[in-house]
Amino acid sequence: MAHAATVGELATSLVRSLTGITRDDSIFGGLKDRTIKGLRDGGHGRVNPFEIKDRCAGLVEKFGVLNRDDLAEALQSRLDSLPETRWIPDVLSLLLQLSNRPLENASLSDLDGLTAVFSPPPELTWEDIVADGPLTDDDAWGEVERGYHSSGDDEVFDGSDSEPTTSTQATSFAEDDIAALARLHIVKPDAILLGDVRTARETLSRPRDSSDVNAVSELILIRETISMLRGLPTDLFSVGSGAVVSISSNLCIATASKPMLYHLLSNFAEIGSQLVFLRHWTQQKRSEAYVQSIQAAVQSTTGTIDLNIGRLEQRFIEPPDSCVVSLIDVRIEVEEFTRAAIHLSSIIAANDRASNGDKSSSFALLDALYEEACVADMAGDKQLFNAIARALLAGIRTYLRPVLLWVSSGDLPKQGADTFFVRPGVEDCPLSEIWHKRFALRLQTGGRACAPEVMQPFIEQLYAAGKEKAFLKLNGHEADESVVDAVSLTARLSMATVTERLTPNSLMSFDELLHELLQDCFAGTRSPDTTTLRTVMLEHVDLLRHTRALNDVFLGHDGMSLQAFTGSLFGLLQRGSSNWHDKFFLTRLVQSTLGAAPIVHGHCITVSVLTDDNHPARGPISRQLARIKLAYAVPCPVQNVTRSADLPTYSAAFSLLLQIEYAAYVLSSQTFDLRKLGFGWRSAGPALQETLSLRERLIWFIGILRSHYGTVITTHADGLRRGLEAANGIDSMAEIWATHDKHLRLCLLLAPNVAPLIDAVKHILRLSESLEDAWPSLLDQSTSLPAVTRMAAEFDKILAFVAAGLRSVSRAGGVPALEALAERLQWNAG
Amino acid sequence: MPAADDSKRKAARETIDILHEISTLLNTHLDRQSLSYCVSLIENGVNPEALANVIKDLRQHNPQQRSDNGL
């Protein structure tokens, strides 16, 4: 009965659900009865679960065949999710009978509408509370006894059996869900797997001298080797003093003999020793900046090795399907990718042993890397070349920064100054000596500049370039103020550039390419509008004008101004004026005569009169003239070219010029005016005739001297001008000036090696003065012929001596001017 | 044992949910409530074929159902 009632109730609900007809409807009763009767119909067979299962599988297959894989997958997944209960096949049978063309009408989107949307319960409002019961009681709003709500009365929460939480910060989620989620992702290590590793460690930990020989697998040896190569501590290898790796265990393997095994492990130990040394070296603190750069480059090489070791290790951690565990294979592979680093390590170790604090080998490491890079390039070993060249270029880039600072600004670097190739010279030298004394090259033992070998061809060029900047700055001709970006200039000294240039051009050597790159780098320090020293010297300082001015002042280039000066001076001397040697008077006289030329700065001329044992205050006028010392103040930059403020050659030439002019002045003076004679020339006595003959010869001699003087000065002035215009720096200008000065000195017979000749010439010039002094007595014929004859003979003798001396000097020194002078003296002699 | 009843009810709900999804995929036009009644009837021994005939008969008396069935 209960069963029937249940079925009846369910039938009633089913009718209402399917038809929507309620109990109140008149047809409801009939429908219900018919439904119950239909449900009790026992004329149907029992459901075969296997048949239902087959039908469902067939339906899934049908969906798949008819290209409704979505339905097939959805249906299959639901069928698989159904629990295995007794009534499921019956329910599925019902659904299959009620199915209505699902292929055409069903869609997965229909399932989305089945999920019931969660609707939170309606919020409790005051209306609801008041509707429940109005709060009108007097004690509803009374004071609440606080003690009733004491936390001590609350049930104590015992958390001992609660599940631990994973976070101490409360979230909106339940804590146990997060803890459970976390536990799902925690992987506990398998202790069994670690057991093998612990056993292997114990085996390897036994010392080598132990009598127990322990067998290990090749995989364990490979693991230990890889760890050792990484620089990690291992049980198989130990690192001793000097970064030497040795084998510390006594063991064997099943696949190789003991000697072979130890030979193999020794190979690894050698490789490991080199790598350990390299890693230690990169960690050393070094003061030289370029060494630090090399350390960084080497560190990147060891980093690459670590990556390769990692890839090797990965092969054993996640082995592919066919992975051969072979120590020999590992050795071959390790040797291949560590070859370059080992060579680098040997270079650095050899350099450390050789230098060991030796100051003369400041750049020995750079030199060694440079040499090895060139050798590797010539040998075609690209791997080795790349490793060494990378380290070399890193060091050169850093080394070049202070060099480029020097070249662009003339400032010495503050750091590493004691190994820089330029050192400060005389700190407080005058401006006239800045170029030659302010800086100096720092030389190593052997006379080479203190710089790497690769920089030696550029040292002179760099030294001059930096000095030029410093010179301009110190002389107030500030050069280009733009700061040179050393980083961008040296950026081309990279492996990318080297590879790009060498790859298509197999005939170019690395050495040649490096020189080209360095040349480009140094050329980049100059911009097209950079003011050069040559421009400053020729245009701003006006070097050529000053050198031409020297000719006018000292060498009598302008004959009229010279005559104006000498005329005034000689007149004073002959009148016996006591003020002639007043330096202020003489200075005024020179400035107004010799200094009046347009190219001469008259205010720069000063005159002094020497008074010492070599220059007595009394004596023949020609000797007195030698006391006059002329000085012309050339600017300090010009003095860096002339190397002297006094210009001794020009001073000596001026002194000789004065004596020549005086001799000419004396011989052509009114003293020898023959119209004063009371008788004719043919009536003159032999002494007078001889005297006049001697005078003519003296005049001739002086004329030749003057002609020679003028020719030499003009020729040398032209040569000096051309040389200075073509010179590109102060060094070449100074060299040209020195050559000019030396040649001038020789041609004017002022050199020390021709002192006898100039003395002889001066003796002849003094004969003029003697002749003038003797003329009055010759006129009254009180002077005898032998006296005059002696003077003439003296002249001839000295002249012959001078001519012969000139000829020998010209032949020895190859001076055409002296040769010409000698010939002229010999042609017209006598 | 409330916890066991809860789990049973939860399992029953999940089973009904899955059957309802299968019913939707097969386009049976059974809503969840009707399906629940059908499952209950089957659990009480009603033959599925007889039940299917009853449902088809009852649908004749529901204009809405008749239009969904294409009648």
Could you please describe the fold and organization of this structure?
The complex is a heterodimer of chains A (830) and B (71). In chain A, the strands form four sheets. A two-stranded parallel sheet of chain A has the order 1-4. A two-stranded antiparallel sheet of chain A has the order 2-3. Chain A is built from 33 helices and eight strands. The radius of gyration of chain A is 58 Å and the shape is elongated. Chain A folds into five domains: 2-39; 49-74, no CATH class; 199-356, no CATH class; 369-531, no CATH class; 540-825, Up-down Bundle (Four Helix Bundle (Hemerythrin (Met), subunit A)). Helices cover 61% and strands 3% of the residues of chain A. Chain A starts with a helix and ends with a helix. Residues 164-175 of chain A have low confidence and may be disordered. Chain A has 830 residues and is mainly α. Chain B is mainly alpha-helical and 71 residues long. Chain B has one domain. Chain B contains four helices and no strands. Chain B has helices at residues 2-25, 32-43, 48-59, 63-68. In chain B, helix 1 packs across helix 2. The longest helix of chain B has 24 residues, at 2-25. The radius of gyration of chain B is 14 Å and the shape is globular. The termini of chain B are far apart. The chains are: A mainly alpha (830), B mainly alpha (71). Chains A and B meet through helix 1, helix 2, helix 4 and helix 5 of A and helix 1, helix 2 and helix 3 of B.
SSE topology:
The complex is a heterodimer of chains A (830) and B (71).
Chain A: H1 2-19, H2 28-39, H3 49-65, H4 69-81, H5 88-98, H6 102-105, H7 109-112, H8 126-132, H9 175-185, H10 191-205, E1 214-215, H11 218-229, E2 237-239, E3 245-247, E4 251-252, H12 258-283, H13 289-317, H14 327-355, H15 364-379, H16 382-409, E5 422-424, H17 434-438, E6 439-441, H18 459-474, H19 486-490, H20 495-502, H21 510-523, H22 533-540, H23 543-554, H24 559-575, H25 583-593, E7 605-609, H26 621-625, E8 628-632, H27 636-642, H28 648-667, H29 686-726, H30 730-747, H31 755-779, H32 785-813, H33 816-827
Parallel strand pairs in A: 1-4
Antiparallel strand pairs in A: 2-3, 5-6, 7-8
Helix pairs in contact in A: 1-2, 3-4, 3-5, 11-13, 12-13, 12-14, 13-14, 13-16, 14-15, 14-16, 15-16, 16-18, 23-28, 23-29, 24-25, 28-29, 28-31, 29-30, 29-31, 29-32, 29-33, 31-32, 32-33
Chain B: H1 2-25, H2 32-43, H3 48-59, H4 63-68
